Amino acid sequence: MEVKRELSQFDLTNIIVGAIVGADIYIASALTAGLVGPFSIVLWAVAGLFAATIAIVFAYCSYYVPRVGGPFAYVSEAFDEFYGFLTGWSMWIAELLALPVFAIAFVNYLQALVPLTPAAEVAVKALFIGSLTFVNIVGVRAAGRLNDALTIVKLSPLLLLIVAGLGFFLVRPETVIANYTPLLPLGLDNASHALVLIFWAYAGFEIGTLPAGEVQEPQKTIPRAIVSGMLIVTLFYLLTNFVLYGLINWTELDQSTVPLVAAGTILFGSAGALIMTVGALFSVSGSDESGMLGSARLAYAMAIDGLFPRAFAKIHPRYGTPYVILIAQGAIAFILSNVGNLSGLISFAVLNLAFSFLLTCFALIVLRGDDGANLRGQHLLPLVGIAICLFLLFSTTTFDKVAGVLVILAGIPVYLFYSPKEEVHHLKTLFLSEEAVFLRRLEAKETYLANLLDLIHTALRRIRRPGSREPGGR
């Protein structure tokens, strides 16, 4: 069965928005308060521009290399499998680090409802990671349907916060003026590091870029969809943070581990705190569930290429999921959740992401123009992307730089040991089939903000054509 290549600009925009917006907004908003104060709102806009630039680079790479594998495939095609492996290795490390981040955030927001002892925190992290690992092994499809059903539960608190917050500012403008004055109380010394932490919230666009063979008129559709998607995400992030920094003074935000609960309390009292807490718990759980499967899939792809332990390619005989790597990731995430902290884990994740993005930008320089494609900005954007990635790498902490070099170098003996091994051909053929790739992309779409866009799009379409039926509709 051949896959129909009929993804429109709206479809691709929806996938990109859904791939980016998750629980990050519950986590990242307060991390920069003590670094740059309310000037963080400006950095959220800058980070959106950074992410959009690199996202278009990814999309153009997918045009020239229209197959599964993401940056691993792009860099391997442009250079060789060694550099492709280092790209996939650093991206896998970055995605792996997101798992303990969400475990820590889940405990922080749960503390807003139920005080936990240190021992109870460890137990909750173990239960949280263990249950999501179990769900990914035995019930991914059921979990996806549940995630769809809970979309409104996850999104409503943030939309409520935005609407109520903007209404509050209309009644009491002096509050927002006071909390935004001065805009830059701490200077710009820590602005670059703050930008690193904010950039993490935009990560996910690399998942949303599809092989161009599945998209209508890819030369026009891909860049337009990415620009549209990034504008929607950036607007959503800016509105949420504008309300947050307008309601709460930056000095108080700096001390908060649950910033949106504090904002909900100001607007709606204890009921608001409960609403924001429940929304955060559902969002964090959903994001970690999808992130766990995504990082496992990347490790699985490298394993069937013969570049990771063969055990990582083992499929559960009953459930058809890569259970070995899922269990291994769960164990690593649990350990890191008890020894790491939010800002440290996020900063190190961005360093690894920036390294893989850097190699992808170089790959586009090599790949572009092979078939005379007229992709707008394909000569300039990779150069801008390289500058952005170098800036992000430079802006991480000294510890991150040293540890990052060691982690990347640690990938070399892994490659040297496993690269002579044979590919797991039958698994690779199944995994890379066009139909499997297409279905995985649609199933993996995070429905956090994307479903809302889908509902609005459907409603508008029916208003324009009253009484008409969708083609093939029942």
Automatic annotation (TrEMBL):
Transmembrane intervals: 12-35, 41-61, 82-110, 122-140, 152-171, 191-213, 225-248, 260-282, 320-339, 345-367, 379-396, 402-418
Membrane topology note: Multi-pass membrane protein
Keyword annotations of the record: Cell membrane, Membrane, Transmembrane, Transmembrane helix
Pfam family for this entry, one: AA_permease_2
Compartments it resides in: Cell membrane
Main location: membrane
Annotated InterPro entries: AA/rel_permease1, APC_superfamily
PANTHER family according to UniProt: AMINO ACID TRANSPORTER-RELATED, MEMBRANE PROTEIN
Protein name: Amino acid transporter
